[in-house]
Design a protein that fits this description.
The complex is a heterodimer of chains A (534) and B (316).
Chain A: E1 8-11, H1 26-34, E2 47-52, H2 67-76, E3 81-83, E4 89-91, E5 94-99, E6 105-110, H3 124-135, E7 150-157, E8 160-165, H4 172-175, H5 186-190, E9 205-211, E10 215-220, E11 234-239, H6 243-251, E12 257-258, H7 263-270, E13 275-289, H8 300-308, H9 312-320, E14 324-326, H10 350-359, E15 366-373, H11 378-391, E16 395-402, H12 404-410, E17 418-423, H13 429-437, H14 452-466, H15 470-487, E18 490-491, E19 494-503, E20 506-507, E21 524-525, H16 530-533
Parallel strand pairs in A: 1-13, 2-11, 2-12, 15-16, 15-17
Antiparallel strand pairs in A: 3-4, 5-6, 6-8, 7-8, 9-10, 10-11, 12-19, 13-17, 13-18, 13-19, 14-19, 20-21
Chain B: H1 3-30, H2 35-40, H3 46-56, H4 62-74, H5 88-123, H6 128-142, H7 145-157, H8 176-210, H9 213-220, H10 225-262, H11 268-277, H12 281-309, H13 311-315
Classes of the chains: A alpha+beta (534), B mainly alpha (316).
């Protein structure tokens, strides 16, 4: 990426100045995107067309599971809160929020004068209806658990709500910025089956046309509550499942940006003159699951031996090209607020690995089945590269490739065979840690919560939810990173950066570690954009 | 060849479709995973799965589900897509006409190219021209669609030529010009293999015919060569081509799956891939039924065309 002609950059949402890893031109691009560009320059108007990859089935934010669904709904709806470019959180439909002294409830004061697309006024009743719908087991909302330990939600008055918790949860404001927690109008909730194609939101754009898995056309919401926004008159999202077609469409300016670029295509896009290809340190990863409750990986020495066989920088290059960041078998990346950068990356040590294997009674190695789903494609790379690394110490992975639906129904989280999992960046440390490691709040994916180290982490998770001061939280999440790195039930060789590409005339693209939060209300087009001429 | 014959063919066609839909229904159920697990993805909890299965009716016995679907079909109701929550019939209808445009375009272009070239190759058998045509058809038949399609995008849709939009779709009703521009590249991609296949069949059909006694008779009685070829020769030679064309509809549907995906063209091919991957049974069933019906109809039409070209067949 040192090629002078390319304009690619690497950004992180925290302390990005210190972490601009890419060479040269990066500093040119970074301030323009994350910095405070004078808004006086922004020119309203024009049409922006964005290419998406893969499925976009529904516009129902509560039932969506695909990134593209969230990319669409964040432009049609608002949450109570939203994440900032730097990983913090700020009010969106909420003007302010405060916890009670005991941390058992939070009060959100809502913005006044906000209108839904259908003209009705936004009030506390809509918030109550939305959150109750997500929590209702009959809804079967996929990401319900990630909203936190909410016991009940009550309207205090027309413009404030109180959320009661079953246990303290310091991360609640951030959790409410999650993709599935968009605020739907009370009427929309009553009409739940219609939400798949009809948005009932307050967002910067209103829906004109939706063809599932093909395209979404939106127009500027003239009654949007943020003054002067959005700048764009029209926003078109197009699903382009083939990367050759994606590159051609961008090069021809048939699309102005690609929201989710794969690692192989990234290099080709950065070579196009005038295209900005940008990467932001992300927290997406593939984890090889080593069940801690059954041989051979129930023995921590065997798990450690495998860790010691992994050359992480080399694996990162092989799996993610120049668009990954080495990881250390734990799920918190530099994209998170409490990433502990003082923990050194583990270096491979084959002699010690063999020694540990021998001590565990596997002196001559062993065979082990590893199931891999065909989607996303990076899973197969992860498996093959890990297989090559493990082979050095005599652990022979037999890889079995499987259709994604079959994998989901028969292998994932079933406690039977090892497999390669895949997780996206979450708004909070707690969301991903409790999902992976907690038997109480999550799925305990590695069946590890019962081990001594697992029990310790379960306690730390509980503490992390209670403690509100930053230093205390940093200590707790640092401790969790250390324990899971050394003893946890996963191999996580790398994080995938969030990649996107756009023509230079696209300004204020929302560069985020969670790249599915693609809200384009600040985005505007320079005078030379084709979307201004049409 | 009367009305009774037609009725019999249609009746057998319907029986085939019934058997087809039963097989597909069973196969989709044999696959691990269902629409509920596809909707919930890697966030599925057992409770959420159970709730969703009940809501989608997936907890009912398979036979009952099939009977329910069949009952709907009789009244023209394709059911509701499990994952898109829209009437499956409406989704399929839109996609069907898009794919039909591709398929008809391909068949017309392929026939217009393949039949004259095939005849010429047969007549000039062994000549350099024949060799060139045959070689070109070998190339066409051996390059897979997933190579041809991206190559076409790179050659024709990107600079310097930049002749067509690289992918996507515009409805005919919105802009006929844009519709045509978006349809051309997929049609070219599909035409490649089909033309090559048809051409080879036409050539060998013609060769058989040209070697037959009645052609010799026609020539001996002094008919002009063009009349011999186009009236007596092609008329019989085409029967093979038409049979192959009807069978190739099935093959074409397979190519459409790939080509539509690459060109992001919203047709039946992309729909069925999505439906199977997401275990969306109403969509899988409906799409398969429509494709099956097209195939059956194409074969009935081919029989009629045969009868027109060769009235003796109709007597049998």
């Amino acid at each position: 990426m040192n090629d002078g002609g390319r304009r690619s950059s690497l950004l992180t949402r925290r302390g990005f100045g210190a972490r601009l890893l890419a060479a040269g031109t990066a500093t040119l691009v970074a301030p323009a995107i994350l910095g405070r560009r004078a808004y006086g320059e922004a020119k309203p108007g024009g049409r922006l067309t964005v290419a998406l990859f893969k499925d976009l089935r529904t516009l129902n934010p509560i039932m969506g599971i695909f990134g593209n669904e969230w990319r669409a709904t964040c432009n049609l709806y608002n949450n109570l809160t939203r994440l900032t470019a730097h990983g913090g959180v700020e009010g969106d439909l909420a003007e302010s929020y405060t916890p009670s002294a005991d941390g058992m409830s939070w009060t959100f004061v809502l913005r006044d004068g906000v209108k839904f697309h259908d003209g009705s006024s936004f009030s506390s009743a809509d918030v109550v209806a939305t959150i109750e719908k997500i929590l209702d087991p009959k809804t079967a909302a996929p990401y319900k658990a990630e909203l936190g330990p909410i016991a009940s939600v009550k309207a205090v008055d027309k413009h404030s709500v109180r959320i009661e918790l079953s246990s303290p949860y310091a991360d609640l404001p951030k959790a409410l910025a999650s993709s599935m927690a968009r605020i739907v109008s009370e009427r929309g909730i009553a009409d739940f089956a219609k939400l798949d194609n009809t948005p009932y939101g307050t967002g910067p754009f209103v829906l004109k046309e939706f063809a599932p898995n093909d395209h979404v056309v939106m127009e500027r919401n003239p009654h949007y509550f943020r003054p002067g926004r959005p700048y764009l008159d029209r926003l078109v999202l197009r699903v382009l499942p083939d990367t050759t077609a994606q590159v051609a469409a961008l090069e021809n300016r048939e699309v102005d940006a690609i929201a989710d670029v794969d690692a192989d295509t990234f290099g080709r896009l950065s070579a196009i003159k005038g295209v900005k290809a940008t990467q932001v340190i992300g927290g997406t990863f593939n984890n090889i699951v080593l069940y801690a409750n059954k041989p051979p990986f129930d023995d921590p020495r065997v798990r450690m031996a495998l860790r010691l066989a992994m050359d992480r920088p080399q694996m990162t290059d092989a799996i993610a090209g120049k668009t990954g960041t080495p990881a250390d078998d734990q799920p918190i990346s530099a994209a998170y607020e409490y990433f502990d950068k003082s923990i050194p990356l583990r270096k491979p040590d084959l002699a010690k690995a063999r020694q540990l294997l021998k001590a565990a009674g596997h002196g001559s190695g062993f065979e082990h089945k590893l199931v891999v789903s065909n989607s996303p494609a990076s899973r197969q790379k992860t498996a093959v590269v890990a297989q090559a690394m493990a082979e050095q110490i005599g652990i022979r992975f037999n890889i079995e490739l499987m259709d994604n639906a079959r994998y989901g129904a028969t292998i994932w989280n079933k406690g039977i065979e090892s497999y390669v999992g895949n997780y996206g960046t979450r708004p909070t440390e707690d969301a991903i840690i409790s999902k992976l490691y907690s038997a109480k709040y999550g799925i305990d994916e590695g069946r590890w919560a019962g081990t001594p180290a697992g029990k310790q982490v379960e306690q730390l998770i509980e503490q992390g939810r209670r403690v509100t001061d930053s230093a205390g939280r940093r200590k707790i999440y640092g401790e969790i990173q250390r324990i899971t790195r050394d003893d946890g039930p996963f191999i996580i060789p790398n994080f995938f950066n969030s990649l996107y590409a756009a023509w230079g005339y696209v300004n204020e693209w929302p560069a985020r570690a969670i790249n599915t939060e693609m809200r384009l209300d600040d985005c505007w087009l320079s005078a030379d954009a084709p979307g201004r001429k049409a | 060849m009367g009305v009774a014959y037609l009725a019999r063919r249609v009746f057998y066609g319907l029986i085939s479709l019934l058997i087809l839909s039963a097989i597909i229904f069973v196969c989709t159920h044999l696959l691990p995973g269902d629409a509920a697990s596809a909707i919930l993805g890697e966030a599925a909890t057992p409770e959420a799965l159970a709730t969703l299965r009940a809501r989608l009716g997936l907890d009912q016995p398979v036979l009952l589900q099939f009977a329910h679907w069949l009952g709907g079909m009789v009244t023209g109701d394709f059911g509701v897509s499990a994952t898109l929550n829209q009437p499956a019939g409406a989704i399929i209808a839109g996609r069907f006409f898009n794919s039909l445009a591709l398929a008809l375009g391909t068949i017309i272009v392929a026939a217009a190219l393949a039949i004259p070239l095939g005849v010429v190759a047969a007549v000039k058998r062994g000549s350099r021209l024949d060799g060139a045509i045959l070689t070109a058809s070998y190339v066409g038949i051996s390059i897979p669609d997933f190579i041809i399609a991206p190559v076409l995008i790179i050659l024709l849709a990107m600079p310097p030529l930049n002749l067509f939009p690289s992918s996507g779709f515009v409805a005919l009703g919105i802009s006929p010009g844009d519709w045509l521009a978006h349809t051309i590249l997929p049609v070219i991609a599909l035409t490649f293999v089909l033309t090559a296949h048809l051409l080879r069949q036409t050539r060998s059909g013609m060769l058989d015919v040209l070697a037959s006694d009645y052609i010799r008779t026609a020539r001996l009685k002094g008919l002009p060569e063009s009349l011999v070829l186009w009236r007596h020769g092609l008329r019989n030679g085409l029967t093979t081509t038409i049979t192959v064309l009807a069978l190739d509809i099935g093959y074409l549907m397979g190519s459409i799956v790939i080509v539509e995906e690459i060109f992001a063209y919203p047709g039946l091919g992309r729909l069925i891939v999505y439906a199977v991957a997401n275990r969306d049974i109403p969509l899988v069933q409906g799409t398969a039924l429509v494709i099956g019906a097209v195939y059956v109809a194409a074969n009935i039409l081919a029989d009629f065309a045969h009868a027109l070209l060769n009235p003796r067949l109709a007597q049998q």
